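# nightly structure sweep
# worker-07 picked up a monomer target from the shared queue
# config: single-sequence mode, recycle default, output format = C-alpha cells
# input follows
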Amino acid sequence: MNGVYKYSTKAGDRWRIVYDGPPVFDPETRTVQRKQHQRRGFARERDAKRALRDMQSAVADKRHVDR
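# output follows
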C-alpha cells in the first residue's frame, strides 16, 4: 500500500503518504515483520510525492530513523 493518497478535511483536501520502513526482526517468533509508516498533511500532491520519494530513498540507503 505504498503511495500517495488524498483525504478531505474541513480546511480542504490534503495528501498523505504511506511507505514501508525498514523490516523489523521479532526474536520471539523468529520472523521479519513489515512496518508501515505514514505522514499526513501535505497541501499539494507534488509535495507528498517528493516526500515519499525522499523517504523511500532514505529507507533504501539505511538513513531512515523511527520517531
